[in-house]
Amino acid sequence: MLLCEDGADCLFEDHGESIHLGVLLGRDGKVERLLEQEKDVNEKWDLSGWTPLHLAAQAGNFKIATVLLRFNADKSVGDKFGHTPYYYASQARYDWSYIFHETKYEHAEFAS
Q1: How far is CA 103 from CA 48, 91, 108, in A?
Q2: Which architecture, in CATH terms, is 2-107?
Q3: Angle between helical axes of 62-70 and 28-36 (0-180°, round to 10)
Q4: For position 18, what pLDDT does the model report?
Q5: What residue segments make up the domains of the chain, in order of their start?
Q6: Alpha helices in 16-74, H assignment, sequence order
Q7: Which of 80, 82, 75 is nearest to 99 (CA)?
Q8: What's the confidence (pLDDT) of residue 100?
Q9: Rounded distance, CA 85 to CA 82, Å?
């Protein structure tokens, strides 16, 4: 990613406050630190209605999805079209049915 090569990733690590951007950059540690500061794990983008979990699911980022779920991300929230994060994971052909349907996701096995 050109932004990361230009240092955007370093700037975000030091000063960023957006969970969505952390998910997009794949910064699971930063996402976790933001959530520990009680940032809203279910915050929606205005135009799309996407939550950070929608982004993680669409990108196939299981590690960040697990972090978000540990902080009580809502698996059932729909975007402006009513689509859940599971919908986007399945559209991208990621088999995450167990993570979205299990009540104890932390016990699920994942093969990348």
Answers
A1: 27, 22, 10
A2: Alpha Horseshoe (1.25)
A3: 10
A4: 87
A5: 2-107
A6: 19-25, 28-36, 52-59, 62-70
A7: 75
A8: 64
A9: 10
User: Does residue 56 contact residue 23 with C-beta atoms inside 8 Å?
Assistant: yes
Indicate whether this model's pTM tops 0.85: no
Q: How confident is the model at residue 102 (pLDDT cuts 50, 70, 90)?
A: low
Distance CA 37, CA 84 (A): 25
Under DSSP, is residue 90 helix (H, G, I), strand (E, B) or coil? helix
Determine contact, residues 68/106, Cβ cutoff 8 Å. Answer: no
SS3 state at 37: coil
Residues 35-92 pLDDT 10s: 999 999 999 999 999 999 999 999 989 899 999 999 999 999 999 999 999 888 888 7
Q: Which residue has the tokens 């990348």?
A: 112
**CA distance linking residue 19 with residue 25, whole number of Å:** 10
